Amino acid sequence: MAEGETYDFIIVGAGSAGCVLADRLSASGKHRVLLLEAGGEDRHIWIHIPIGYGKLFTDARVNWLYQSAPEPELNNRQIMQPRGKVLGGSSSINGLLYIRGQRQDFEHWRQLGNVGWSYEDVLPYFKKSEAQCRGSDAFHGADGPLTVSNQVEPHEICEAFIRAAEQAGFPRNDDFNGASQEGAGYFQTTMRNGRRLSTARAYLRPARSRANLTVETGALTERVLVEGGVAVGVQYRRHGRRATARARGEVVLAAGAFGSPQILQLSGLGPAALLRQHGITVVRDIPGVGSDLQDHLQARMLYRVTRPITLNDVVNRFDRRMRAGLRYVLFRKGPLAVSAGYAGGFFRTDPRLESPDVQCHLLLFSADKPGGSLHPWPGMTASICQLRPESRGTLRIKSADPAEAPEIRLNYLSTEGDKHTMVQGLQLLRRIMGAPALKPFIAEELDPGPGVASDADLLAFIRARGTTIFHPTSTCRMGVDEAAVVDPELRVKGVARLRVADASVMPTVVSGNTNACVIMIGEKASDLILRQAEASPARATAA
Question: For the chain, which domains are there?
Answer without folding.
Answer: 1-116+189-295+393-412+474-543 (3.50.50.60), 152-186+297-386+414-465 (3.30.410.40)
